[in-house]
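Example 9 (inverse folding). The structure is encoded as follows.
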């Protein structure tokens, strides 16, 4: 097969040359005429419908909202597939259309169908369309941003918290105390008696019973 193709090309050189020139011109024209997207949309032609029903379980949402609404949306012209998901308090239905259906025409048909949903959905449940964006555009709904000073402030907080004293059990304590109104016995050393009476050790009684007097408050460690 390849040998016959080469033989035919050699016999018809002029025809092969014309075809090569035509292909070259067509390639140059395609380069300048083909639209180029910075981020090409490779997603399907789809429309998303959300429905909120607060305080309901996924089973209730599936039976009374998702299933009947999906059945109605399957009857639209140009529908390729219908996918649904039921969660707590809300329902999400994705209607996928064929590629030849215009995106805004599909949204219009879905909107018209949702206008009739009040006849078969529970009272107060109103379905609505997702934002006018493709599946690729939904990636930019949420962004993750980092504060350049966040790490520095975190380290500063950790350093500050590490400087705070922590309470410990045991150790040394300091308090205020007072001597009771009683006479010191003679066996008490002189320096103890002087300290208890607020006087010097030389004035404390060294023998016998000390006279009863009101002592001054002292500080004990």
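The amino acid assigned to each position is listed next.
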């Amino acid at each position: 097969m390849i040998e016959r193709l080469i033989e035919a090309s050699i016999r018809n050189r002029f025809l092969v040359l014309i075809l090569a020139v035509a292909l070259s011109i067509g390639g140059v024209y395609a380069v300048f005429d083909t639209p180029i997207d910075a981020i090409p949309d490779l997603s399907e032609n789809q429309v998303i419908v959300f429905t909120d029903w607060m305080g309901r379980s996924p089973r209730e949402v599936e039976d009374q909202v998702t299933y009947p609404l999906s059945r109605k949306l399957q009857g639209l012209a140009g529908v390729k597939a219908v996918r649904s998901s039921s969660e707590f308090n809300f329902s999400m239905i994705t209607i996928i259309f064929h590629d030849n259906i215009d995106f805004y025409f599909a949204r219009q048909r879905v909107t018209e169908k949702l206008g009739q949903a009040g006849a078969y959905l529970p009272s107060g449940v109103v379905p609505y369309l997702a934002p006018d964006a493709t599946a690729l555009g939904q990636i930019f709904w949420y962004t993750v941003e980092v504060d350049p000073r966040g790490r520095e402030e975190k380290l500063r907080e950790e350093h500050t918290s590490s400087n705070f004293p922590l309470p410990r059990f045991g150790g040394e304590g300091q308090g205020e105390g007072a001597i009771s109104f009683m006479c010191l016995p003679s066996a008490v050393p002189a320096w103890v008696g002087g300290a208890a009476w607020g006087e010097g050790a030389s004035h404390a009684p060294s023998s016998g019973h000390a006279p009863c007097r009101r002592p001054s408050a002292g500080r004990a460690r």
